[in-house]
Amino acid sequence: MGQTAAFLVLTATMTLVVSVWALYNRSVETAERVARGFYIVSVALSVAALLWILAGMLGMPKDAAYVSVLKLLLFRGWIVIGFGLSAAILTVFLLACKSCWESLRVFVTSPFVLKGLCFSVSISFLCVEIGKLSHDSDMRQFFLQSGYTVGFMYVVMAAEIAGAVGLLVPRMTVPAALGLMAVMAGAVRTHAHNGDPFSDSLEAVHLLILLGCIVVLRLMRSTTTSSAPATSP
Prior knowledge:
By secondary structure, this protein is mostly helical. Helix content is 79%, strand content 0%.
């Protein structure tokens, strides 16, 4: 199975698993525990990805095993995207289902789900910047071959860092996510323009999807919690 097919299958599978659980679960306490657990797992996987990348920079052999683990950590084992897509889809579902069970509402409106997504994506961009800085000459060549200037490369890097920080500030979450979505859409377009295989854009697509989920959850949350107060993240 190719990289793109594997990405799509694993994303769809994890999203389906989480959605089915959320739809069949009727326990508010379980919904709250799972939301908190998701946040803890998101933080753990994100920190592990950062440390793994740093280990590679410090001399860990970048063999097949290293690359396999890195790919698993970069995509967070497809756990984060599965929860993010499921929560975003079910949030929209809640808008049309005013009499849905409380456990579903508690899960999709939990501040821990949104916080887990924001933390994971923020650390992902930090990892991206570390990778770019450690391969500065390669990145310069890529931007130049793509028709951009080196100065534009550093503007993009600065925007990504600012957006990553903004995701962790509640009032800046939506504008930061929208700005980063524009950057990721530009990355996908650049790879397509260069004739690169779509697999080269998978990391950007992965982040683009997660950013979209963050925007949906943040914008929809006040509506879906109208009948059940919750603390904003």
